[in-house]
Amino acid sequence: MALEKYGRDRVAFFCDNNTEKVGGTLEGIPIISFDNMREMHEEGYVIMITPTFHAYQSEQLALAGINDYLIFRNEETRFPLKNGTIAEKEHQRDDEILNELTAASCRNDPLENISSLRETVKEAKRLHSEEKKILGYYGFHHESHYYGNIETLIEYAEIAKEDIPYFPIVSHADSMPVYTVDYMYKTAVVMSGIYYRNRIHRQAPWVPVFSVGPYIHYANGIYDAEKISDLKKKNGRTLLAFLPHSIEGYEKKYSYKTFIDEIRAAFGQKFEQIMLCVYWADADSEACSYAEGTGMKVVSAGFRWDAQFDCRLRTLLELADAVVFGDAGTFIPYAIHMEKPIGKIDGRVDEDLYVMQMSEMERKIGIDKEYLKYMDRFNDLFHEKLEMDSSYRKFMNPFAGFDQIRSKKYIRDIARISKDIWIQSDGDMLHYPEAVRQIYWSYEKNGDFCKMSILREAVGAYVD
Fold first, then answer.
1. Which CATH architecture group holds 225-398?
2. What residue ranges do the domains of the chain occupy?
3. Is the pLDDT of residue 353 over 80?
């Protein structure tokens, strides 16, 4: 697309980190290595990043001392609302398949009977491996649908259906420092805590970063209070254990037998029931069969893209008297928010979910001092003893936003602010930064100091 836009006479080289491609050509234009490109840059050539998601390339350039480069914008990235709709129409069948899988996984309650989810998992994995289906929604709000986060917020705040496309992207980065988040957002985003606000603003100072606290706070459980009470009496004292999980295309490296055996050894005599909560892709795994053989009950909150995911997870936490886990995840701040004693089992987990998705070069970039410091503190802080420690809340608060819980009106105001900015920018990403300023000052002019204050907190000194 960049070649078509700028023309052959203006594109001298393509650069690729894949050494197998270096020395070849693309559309007749030579492909060079990163080191070659750095030499060309010193001679005066301009660098342009073309991938839509450019966090890795930006960090690689920064490490090489290169900060003056361009980022290619095509129609899709420049008009995300408009082209998000187009993408959704183009991939309507793919979205329908995902909807069918989600509906199938919920026909039987996966908290009571996980068998139906297992059958659906087999079909989902077949679609992913054999038909190369990307099991995720298309369009501008694809990330927002992870774990039903956007559905949870808009239902809580009673936001009109026609305003949903204008709602900020809902991030699911709420439990650990990940370098890619700094580059992901160029328009308004909702996050749980305030940790990423300054980091995002270093890359895109105009982006409103709203914080609302743990999303599970806004979810309604799938059982009413009477059923929760009856189940707690029936189950007795219950431990909820979270299995270290894989993800589509990545297999988690750890000993599930060791993890499950350690849970049984440490807590088997202290709880009448142990529920093992598994990620959907692990619902048909050997780990589940092994756990059931030891007497554990295997449960799941459902598909990652299921609108009821947060609601089921809330119900699981309501049923639990304590929570135990093997590695980092969103369920930790959720359990802390719901005041559940928590503990950590070693389980011989070799790699966390974030690290195992990286190439060797990406690890050099992503496993930085901040990430290592976080993981060292995480492993030092959490231990086998089940407890509610104030240090847990303090440690997780920057990511989880325990002190950022908002009212319905506040979240409706966030939705209105985001819509006002999009309308002011006419849906054009190039006009979005200035539209943020214009909307901010329009609020002052019209005396709407509530929205003015919310936007000022979200975007900082950019609007001054």
1. 3-Layer(aba) Sandwich (3.40)
2. 2-72, 225-398
3. no
Residue 242 has φ and ψ, to the nearest 5°, of: -100, 120
Distance CA 284, CA 296 (A): 15
Strands, sheet with 238-242, edge to edge from the N-terminal-most edge strand: 297-299, 273-277, 238-242, 322-325, 342-344
Distance CA 128, CA 339 (A): 38
Distance CA 74, CA 56 (A): 19
> pTM to 2 decimals?
0.90
Residue type, 112: E
Q: How many CA atoms lie within 13 A of 156 on its CB side?
A: 26
Under 8 Å between Cβ of 219 and 312: no
Would you call 72 helix, strand, or coil by DSSP?
coil
Residue 425 pLDDT > 90, yes or no? Answer: yes
Q: How far is CA 237 from the centre of its chain?
A: 32
CA–CA gap between residue 57 and residue 17 (Å, rounded): 10
Give the pLDDT confidence of 30-58 residue by residue, as tens digits: 999 999 999 999 999 999 998 877 888 88
389: burial class by Cβ within 10 Å (0-12, 13-18, 19+)? middle
Is residue 192 within 8 Å of 446, Cβ to Cβ?
no
What is the rounded distance in angstroms from the CA atom of residue 250 to the CA atom of residue 268? 31
Inter-residue contact 111 to 315 (CB < 8 Å): yes
Tallying the residues shown for the chain, one arrives at 464
Confidence of residue 357 (pLDDT cuts 50, 70, 90): low
Please report which residue ranges of 297-352 form alpha helices under DSSP H: 309-319, 331-337
Q: How far apart are CA 268 and CA 29, in angstroms?
A: 64
More confident residue, 366 or 240: 240
At residue 363, what is the residue type? Answer: R
* CA dist., res. 424 & res. 438, Å (int): 8
Q: Is 53 exposed, middle or buried (0-12, 13-18, 19+ CB in 10 A)?
A: exposed
Q: How far apart are CA 329 and CA 400, in angstroms?
A: 11
Q: Are 105 and 305 in contact (CB under 8 A)?
A: no
d(CA 239, CA 323): 6
Amino acid letter for position 410: Y
Fill in the amino acid letter for 305.
Answer: W
Q: Can you give the pLDDT at residue 359? A: 63
Phi, psi dihedral angles at 179 (to 5 degrees): -65, -30
The values of phi and psi at residue 10, to 5°, are -110, -5
Angle at 181 between CA 311 and CA 327, to 5 degrees: 55
Question: Whose structure tokens read 């694809």?
Answer: 142
Of 203-217, 292-306, 340-354, the poorest mean pLDDT is in: 340-354
Distance CA 52, CA 73 (A): 8
